[in-house]
Amino acid sequence: LSIMFLDVLISLSIQNIIVFIAWVIMTMLFFFINMSSIIDKKIHVIYLRSYKY
């Protein structure tokens, strides 16, 4: 996916700044979704342990 964006970034001359900003935003969203899913799993594990006992 990022290779495709880099190819578009190199081939386009007018809209390369917009494509680069969109690529950075998508990368940041990917990392934020991963961090939130990891935090969410830890919270669920804590809740499940507290409900069992």
UniProtKB/TrEMBL annotation:
Keywords, in A-Z order: Membrane, Transmembrane, Transmembrane helix
Q: Where are the transmembrane segments?
A: 12-33
Report what the protein is called: DUF443 family protein
The taxonomic lineage of its organism, from the top, reads:
Bacteria, Bacillati, Bacillota, Bacilli, Bacillales
